[in-house]
Amino acid sequence: MPPRAALSRHLVGAASALLLAIPSLTASADEPVFGWIEMATVEPWGTTVKAKLDSGALTSSLDARDIERFEKDGEEWVRFRLELEDERSDAVLTEELEKPIYRSIKVRGAGGSARRAVVLMEFCIGDRRYEEQVGLRDRSEMFYPLLLGRRTIEHLGLLDVRETFINGANCDDDAELVANDPDAD
């Protein structure tokens, strides 16, 4: 094949691929876009924390201390303490909670594997409130007390890994609540 014909064929192929991609870009233009770090509030306290949106993690994770499993009315529950510094006021929220365990997950990492309790928690990011599954873990040595994994990101919208702080946490009393979908597990 002459070089000119090969170049022409290559350009036609590239243009076709680009045209095929355009409808998917315009179809998603209505979805909100979030940066890889955003401000979120942990509800119902309204404590503002930095949240890392991590497409490499499936399940979200929240900084929790003194995590203790126990049985209540024949079901598995977990008792834990939140100790979150508010990014806006520097006040520290210290709250002891007891919640039913939604499910347990096994996580593997460089240090081995561990089982973690997952509970439902509510938080605000952008202008909506979300009820999401979060694994409980001591994240005190981490930069971000809240990590949002793919299960949560899929409810938010699009993730732009080049940007940070595109949206604030702007929920009022009338903010839409996106409830956890148990069928999505």
Could you outline the blueprint of secondary structure elements for this entry?
Layout: H1 3-27, E1 33-35, E2 37-43, E3 47-53, E4 60-63, E5 65-72, E6 75-85, E7 92-100, E8 103-109, E9 112-125, E10 128-137, E11 146-148, H2 150-156, E12 158-160, E13 176-178
Provide tags for this entry.
185 residues, alpha/beta, Cathepsin D, subunit A, domain 1, six-stranded mixed beta barrel, 2 helices, 13 strands, globular, ATP-dependent zinc protease, Peptidase_aspartic_dom_sf, signal, hydrolase, Asp_endopeptidase
Distance between the termini: 52 Å
Order of helices and strands: HEEEEEEEEEEEHEE
Task: Outline the low-pLDDT stretches.
Answer: 10-27
On the 0 to 100 scale, the average pLDDT is: 87
Highest CATH level, the class of the domain at 55-172: Mainly Beta
Q: How much is the radius of gyration in Å?
A: 21 Å
Percentage of residues assigned to helices: 10-25%
Strand content: over 45%
Give the number of DSSP strands.
13
Major β-sheet profile: 6 strands, mixed, barrel
**From the helix content, strand content and strand pairing, which structural class follows?**
alpha/beta
Write down the overall geometry.
globular
Superfamily (CATH H level) name of the domain at 55-172: Acid Proteases
Q: Strand order across the biggest sheet?
A: 2-3-11-4-10-9
Signal peptide: 1-29
InterPro entries: Asp_endopeptidase, Peptidase_aspartic_dom_sf
Keywords: Hydrolase, Protease, Signal
GO molecular function: peptidase activity
